């Protein structure tokens, strides 16, 4: 029978996953909400001119 406590003690996360996680979180990604906010801001600035 598998001893889950022993198996959990042996577990170490894959380095590739940690590297990918760091790369994903450190990127400044622009999403649709950011684009819409920028478009509204630019539109308001043009209206004020």
Commentary on this structure:
The mean pLDDT is 86. The protein has one domain. The chain is built from three helices and no strands. It starts with a helix and ends with a helix. 73% of the residues lie in helices and 0% in strands. It has 49 residues and is mostly helical. It is rod-shaped and about 75 Å long. The longest helix has 17 residues.
Short description, anyone?
The chain is mainly α.
Any chance you could write out the topology, listing elements then pairs?
Blueprint: H1 4-10, H2 15-26, H3 32-48
Question: Which features characterize this protein?
Answer:
single chain; 49 residues; mainly alpha; 73% helix; 0% strand
